[in-house]
Please model this.
Amino acid sequence: MKRLKYNLAILVAGILMLSSCKDNFYDINVNPNNPSKATPALVLPSGLASTAFVMGGYYQALGGFWTQQYAEAPAASQWADWESYNLTEDDFDGRQFSTLYAGPLYDYEYVRKSASTSGNWSFYAISTLMQAYTFQVLADLYDKIPFTEALKGVTTIQPHYDNGSVVYDSLLARIDGAMAKDFTASSSKNPGASDVVFQGDMTKWQKFANTLKLKMYLRYVNVDPNKYKTQIQALLAANNFLTTDATFASFKAEQTGYNPFFNTFIDGLPGNVIANKTMVDFLTNASDPRLAKIYNASVNGTKYLGLATGDSKNHSNQSIKDYSTPNVGNVSPVYFFSKEETLFLIAEAQARYGNASDAQNTFNAAVNASLLSLGLTANAVTYPYNGIQSIMEQKWIASTNKRSLEAFFDYNRTGYPDFFTRSITSILNGNDRPKRLFFPASERKSNANTPAKVALTEKVWWGK
Model:
């Protein structure tokens, strides 16, 4: 973990130097609370980098383990608690929850306030969108999070927790407000290199906003399916969604600038993460060529083989060389959205609120986008269409190594894929599976308003 933090600091410093084009920005710790040093142009890329390191690191791995894309390697032990669901309040604490609040969420808040004061609406919109993106993930993981009273500094050191539905409604209103600003105003400066996602292209950020809203609207399908029906149908009619990936790709082929998943789970702990049997078997049975793109073949035998969740100790006589490993490179980007994910979101919205024929066509386009993104040809494999089930199964495949945490949310929201196996080492009852994370121990120690402990199997507000 120390190496991960060091790498993040070095990477942020490199981004800041590139975006500033000046000689005096070698100080890694640009403090947004110190106006003499901080500017939106410096703080925004820091927030983007920090968000990417959490989303593309431990959260990516958690989603992969809990949706049977990844498994623990033979004789390894680092991820045994993840596979048995034997988590504590110390897991995903300072490494993720606290990091997001102390880092990017504060960064985005500084940029929002500063940009609002100066009328710098491009910076305001980007920071609002990325703050909403980050808050939304936290609300999905914990159900209740500090929000209304969060990010107030010393004035509110023990913020109350808001219900996830309240967080969502507030974020959606913020997004609409931010995207209604005049980006052509003379006070609105183009972020340029400070925007390491779209290089200041506000047309793409508008598409990002629409895609994010669609994802958030679809969270309501189990609890209030008609609440945002009109807005969903309006988005579908306008069809102004992302048509490209939204990524953080400012990694370097040296240890101080690696992709966070590669840094921790491949290079940092070599031999501990392998392919999961559930995914390998599904792709093998379908003769799906993505198998050879998502995973590296085993060293011994050059084959594709995975372990079932919780089965590593039963194969201690074998080594990682007998199994496939995730195909994530040292400079692989972190995905905030992939092109295929956007298409699967549209397909789901069409299936629920639009035209069934349109949904099937978009589903096919999404599968092809997944194939093309991996260097394969369109229609290299085809799948029958069976509504939401097919959409979620294919979205699950496409999310591997890219957006695995979203597959975890989708499973808890829809129940698909419905063929996950019970973890061999599960401490939960029957076929119960995790639906959330525990409130962090650090919060319980420092914030008297932290809610009472809730079971991992307790669904969040939008859960099925």
The first helix runs from residue 2 to 20. The domain at 2-68+90-253+332-446 is CATH 1.25.40.390 (Serine Threonine Protein Phosphatase 5, Tetratricopeptide repeat). The radius of gyration is 21 Å.
